[in-house]
Amino acid sequence: MAEEQNGPQGREAGADEVGHRLWEREQELRSVEQAVEKLCREFAAGGLKIGELLVFSGSPGIGKTSMLEQVRRIAGARQDSTVLFARGSERQRKEPFRVLRQLLLPVLSDLDEAEHKEVFGSWENIVAPAVGLAPPSDEVERMLDPQSVRDGLDFVITQLAPRRAPLVVIVDDLHAVDQESLTWLASFAVRARELPVLLVFAYRHEFEEEARPLAAQIAERAARKHELLPLNPVSVAAIVHGEFAEADDAFCRQVWAVTAGAPYDTVALLREVRDQNLEPVEENSPRLRDLAAAARGQGRDYWLDKLGITVIRFAWAAALLGTEIREDVAAAICAQGPAQADESVRVLRRMRVLTSQPDGRLEFVHPLIATSIYQSIPPSTRTGMHGMAATVIENSGGSLLTASRHLLETHPGEGDDAMVRKLRRAAAENLAIGAPEAARRCLERALNEPPDEEDQAEVLFELACASLLTDPGATANQLRRAIDMEPGLSPDLRVEAVFRLSEVIAHSGDLSTAAALCLDESERAPAGPGRVRLLVAHLLYTALQRDEENGPERAARVRRLVEEVDPDSEAARPVRALYAWDLTLQGGSSTEALRAADAALVDGRLPRSLGWTNTTWNFELPALLGLCFAYNDELGRAEKLFSSAILEFEIAGWSGGHRGFAYFLMGYARLRRGFLPEAEDFLRRGLRIADRMGTGLPLTWNLAGALIDTLLSRGRDHEAWEVAVKYRFLPPYHQTALLLPDVATIYGKLLISRGDHAMAVEVLAETGTRLDKRGWRSTVHAPWAGYLAVAMAGLDLPSARKNGDDAVARARESGSPSAIGTALRLAASVWEGAHAVELLQESVGWLGRSPASYEHAHALIDLGAALVQVGRSLEAEEHLYQGMELAKHCGADGLEVRARNVLASAGLRPSRPQSPAKDTLNPQELAVARLAVRALPPQRIAEELQLPLGVVKQRLAAVHRKLGTGPEGLADALGFPADGPGQGG
Predict the structure, then answer these.
(1) Which helix or strand (DSSP H or E) is residue 56 part of?
(2) Secondary structure in 3-state letters for 32-87
(3) Distance between CA atoms of 880 and 868, rounded to whole angstroms?
(4) Do the beta carbons of residue 177 and residue 185 sit within 8 Å?
(5) Is cis: bond before 607, omega within 30 of 0?
(6) Which end of the chain has fewer surrounding CB within 10 Å, N or C?
(7) Cα–Cα distances in Å, from 417 out to 431, 446, 462, 584, 613?
(8) Which residues does UniProt call coiled coil (predicted)?
(9) Residue 85 to residue 81: CA distance in whole angstroms
(10) What single-letter DSSP state applies at residue 87?
């Protein structure tokens, strides 16, 4: 067993006097022994998903700490286990990640270099600062998403657990754990069963309001739950007789009565009896109630009487520090020299107040003693000592994060500028480790100091930013106050504040207000980059609105801005990105739109100002650039951009809506490309993120719409409808925000799949009217005209054909192969005979030149079916086979089944005759195979073909996989003579 925490903790007060036995806890101890035995036995047998959660709860002093000490003893006796221990502290509850640091820092700091890399993976820069292995980032603007820190912790513990398994994680006083640690522990409790880990938690039912849902979640997941009950009179009598063999029965009975059977109170009372030299007989029983009240209350007079003024001041300093107390730090806080501090520690150990750990640090024997001593500090003294503690911790090399919790306890109102600076730095560090609530507390305290008048608006701005990821409503209110405050923000910071406010408003769905705010401020701002930034934001938010009063006029303003802005300025590329998006949605030349998109890049890459995590412009503009590429058949470039978004958001620790939106973008690109299972996976991952963010968000609509489209393409119409029902995917959709791709068109497709053609016609016709009003004719963004033709076919065939022709005409304006091919396929669906064949042949030709493999498969199968209808079955066969294989590659199960059915109905073989296995090899693989048959080793093959050895090995693996044989059978599988080709030469 590796005890990863700093040695055994002091047992509950009085444990030495009554021995190791815990009275009336036999059932609980058996439960612990069974849980530890099960964990170790099943791990030894190869089990990994064997985790369990064990909880102990009860009132203060009921014996939880003693019980956990026994858990540590039982688990520690197993040579094959690792025990991690931490304890919550009421004084340190506002120190973020404190308990996780106490748990994980010893074991993580003990990893060798190779293990460290494997355990942390790509999460090093996110998790290491949170657990105290690295200092917070120096990047002032950096703000980690708390969810990302939790995700990183999940990864780290998942990698760590098997390496240190079986793992026993013990947390005492869970009710006093800091919120950041508790939130992760609650989520980890859900996943613990997937790992070789036993979690053991103990707590009182005294959780703060915001922690109660987490406590309920933990209790619900516990496989073994034990509520510790008071001791009965017999057990209390046994404890009394252990201290006073001569105690009479009446005295023992009164001890039980006044302590209500609480072990801690019982031991504390007996200590008072001994200190008072009280004889344990019935005549003295009336005095027990007063002694018990004094021992339980343990106020200032009690401790002063026990310890004296010098020793009690050291005890106060220790109580301020909480757990893992350094003697030199406590001594500096209470202004005691080394000799006096040593004497104070000796007295406190003798009085069973403090205990020493093997590493030399001190700890209170029981959490209740620590609480009692802390509460005995006079309020004015306590405030001054907290201020001293902050200074001493900083001077002794401690972190500002630790010192800041003491600063929060000092009285504001002195206008101390140094205090404000420290609190602002602490807030920045808290943001950098993913603790925005702690940052908010620091900045609120800084405002109450207060800061200098000229700094107040800036501190308020920082407070607003601290709430950005967790409380957008509070952020908006604070930003408004900062903007309106006099003296106000600097011009640059005012632009930043307005931009942030518009961002919060826009992401809540109110794009019109966000756009108006930016326009109003742009008219006030002096000429320069700030003004252009606000104007571009105004035009962007207007473009992203669901409805727009004058879309062509706004597009004209964007064109004018492209011409007006200095082409070498930082603002030029965002303007070009917006211009490229307009060109794309207008459905004009695809070449022109791609040229504009390229002009927004630098050497084919996003400029720094348009980076996914750059806060100058945020993620909307790079997203629109990527969608320009996706809409215009440059899907490889789009996927490259979107994969970089996922990576950058993960590195930056943005695991909420940002990463959910990146999953949407990648899922949509995969859908356009025809990689349907991958698209579904990305979109469902995004929806899981969106679900925990709330309901009715634009992100949810985007994800749900793209997932419905993907499921329809896979032929899983019933599942698509279930998603629509779950997310209430129906008009009026989102009231204000533009959704991508056009959700009304997707809803129309969904109605067609359910046979509700009349409603589909109504929905799609309204969509066309709305988009035409804006001048948006892109048939990729919204192929409404083609699907309107499909919906109308059974209701008004001439109008259906007219709409089909209109869809083709719109698509030809763009010149995009996928747009034209898809429009032709849809137009052909309302025709029969030779004209349908003609349209589909052209469709297949266009789609064959595009990356839209699903649409290509669909057109091939449609063409095959049309050829069968006109009696050209033999010609149809090859198209159906190609379409069926491509549909299978895309994961379009419904299309594949349809192709088989058409083949069967035409009297053709439903499956293509198997080609020789060697025909499945591409030329590069065949070249490697020919040399491998000659028994050449991979290194020689690499030299012959002038290829890297790794590439040769990959191609050899593909050869063996495709041919289904090892080296010995390679010649036969390739149809070569037994001695292989070219043996003579």
Answers:
(1) strand 52-57
(2) HHHHHHHHHHHHHCCCCCCCEEEEEECCCCCCHHHHHHHHHHHHHCCCCCEEEEEE
(3) 10
(4) yes
(5) no
(6) C
(7) 21, 9, 16, 53, 32
(8) none
(9) 13
(10) E
What are the residues facing 87 on neighbouring strands? 172
- 414 burial type by CB count under 10 A (0-12 exposed, 13-18 middle, 19+ buried): exposed
User: Hey, which residues does 576 pair with through a beta bridge?
Assistant: none
Beta strands at 362-364 and 354-356: parallel, antiparallel or unpaired: antiparallel
Encoded tokens for 382: 């306590």
Helices 620-631 and 590-599: crossing angle in degrees, nearest 10, is: 150
| Contact criterion met (CB below 8 Å) for 683 and 727 | no
Instruction: Report the C-alpha gap between 721 and 703 in whole angstroms.
Output: 14
Instruction: Retrieve residue 670's tokens.
Output: 């995969």
Question: In this structure, what token pair is assigned to residue 244?
Answer: 């006073």
At which residue do the structure tokens 């009421």 appear? 90
| Residue 915: how many other CB atoms lie within 10 Å | 8
Helix/strand/coil for 86: strand
Residue type, 940: R
Please identify every stretch of the chain with a pLDDT value under 50, giving residue numbers as ranges.
1-20, 140-141, 978-985
Residue closest to 700 by CA, chosen among 710, 709, 688: 688
Torsion over CA of 520, 526, 528 and 534, rounded to 10 degrees?
-10
In the chain, the N- to C-terminal Cα span, in Å, equals 64
Count the residues in the chain: 985
Q: What is the enclosing helix (H) or strand (E) of 498?
A: helix 491-507
Which pair of structure tokens corresponds to residue 356?
């020493």
How far is Cα 785 from Cα 808, in angstroms, rounded to an integer? Answer: 9
Dihedral, 888, 889, 891, 896 alpha carbons, nearest 10: -20
* pLDDT for residue 791: 97
Ordered domains of the chain (ranges, CATH): 2-122+149-227 (3.40.50.300), 233-282 (no CATH), 298-377 (1.10.10.10), 472-545 (no CATH), 547-648 (no CATH), 655-735 (1.25.40), 742-818 (no CATH), 831-905 (no CATH), 917-974 (1.10.10.10)
pTM value is 0.77
For residues 570 and 609, the answer to whether their CB atoms sit within 8 Å is yes
- What pLDDT, in 10s, does the model give residues 754-786? 999 999 999 999 999 999 999 999 999 999 999
